[in-house]
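Quick one:
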Amino acid sequence: MSFGSFGEGQNMPMADINTTPLVDVMLVLLVIFIITAPLFHQAIPVDLPQVSSSKLDDKPLVIQLAIDAQGIVFLDGEAVHRDALDARFAGLTAGNPELHLRADRSTRYEVVADVMAAAQRNGLMKIAFVTQPQEAR
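Output:
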């Protein structure tokens, strides 16, 4: 900040902005918000009925699907031929299951895309790709 001098011939207006009133107003607004914030929560008292129930622990059905480097598909640990995969997926769609897909690093993308398309055709919409965490170097 530069301060003007009180000498003669120095009647130029001060070019700096006085921020003290701005800070004062902001502090007052902050105090007002701190005081009024607890008043924003105005819950309506409702006498809810008491019932005995148990918590539902619905864990989704998980289908494990693995594809090795040669393109062989394993459904829940059992080798499945590609032609029988559609029928197996159709039998597993009850309950909105999740498909966890593990594919070998050297698996052709065409095989993975074909398996994903078969899953989608048969109603499996939740598909997760399972990977290994990268090692720290």
